[in-house]
Specification:
Layout: H1 2-7, H2 15-27, H3 31-43, H4 51-63, H5 67-79, H6 87-98, H7 103-115, H8 123-135, H9 139-151, H10 154-166
Helix pairs in contact: 2-3, 3-4, 4-5, 5-6, 6-7, 7-8, 7-9, 8-9, 8-10
Length: 171
């Protein structure tokens, strides 16, 4: 019902009612509702903006394996939005989502491996994640790929391409 109010699907669009219904479903443990409620707290749409509450709800969904929530939580840790900045924790959550084929998480991991943020710099891993993200339509990854590729030796490029071809998303 929250989604119907959020989208105005068959009912007048009403963010406050959407947040109420998301809150009920989120309290029952529904991961999608937990994520949407967290996003509402993050933006202040339908509720008072509260990044700590956003993190609380997004984390509940992420722990249950909901890939979109894992991505958002990873990005929150990376930016320090409502939570202490922690690149290692960011990498952990982004890796979980990237492994499920989420392009935003794959691109963010490409950046982290390129920059050595939360992980050791690794251009082979950076190429792998940027390539996978680009294949999933991520424009930022497409832009970043040539610079990473130019830094790889022929052997490293071969290894990176093997990692890409061996990648199997898990659900």
């Amino acid at each position: 019902i929250g989604r119907k109010y959020d989208d105005g699907d068959g009912v007048p669009k009403n963010s406050t009612n959407a947040a109420k219904w998301y809150g009920e479903a989120a309290s029952e443990g529904v991961p999608m509702a937990q994520l949407y409620l967290g996003m509402m707290y993050y933006t202040g749409n339908g509720v008072s903006q509260d990044h700590a509450q956003a993190v609380r709800w997004v984390k509940k969904a992420a722990v249950k394996g909901f890939a979109e929530a894992q991505t958002m939580l990873g990005l929150m840790y990376r930016e320090g939005d409502g939570i202490q900045e922690d690149d290692a924790e960011s990498c952990k959550w982004l890796n979980k989502a990237a492994g499920q084929g989420i392009a935003d998480a794959q691109s963010a991991l490409g950046e982290m491996y390129r920059d050595g943020a939360g992980v050791q710099k690794d251009p082979v891993q950076s190429f792998k994640w940027f390539t996978l993200a680009a294949g999933n339509g991520d424009e930022s990854a497409k832009t970043n790929l040539p610079a990473i590729e130019s830094k790889l030796s022929a052997q490293e490029l071969s290894e990176a391409r093997r990692l890409v071809s061996d990648f199997k998303p898990f659900m």
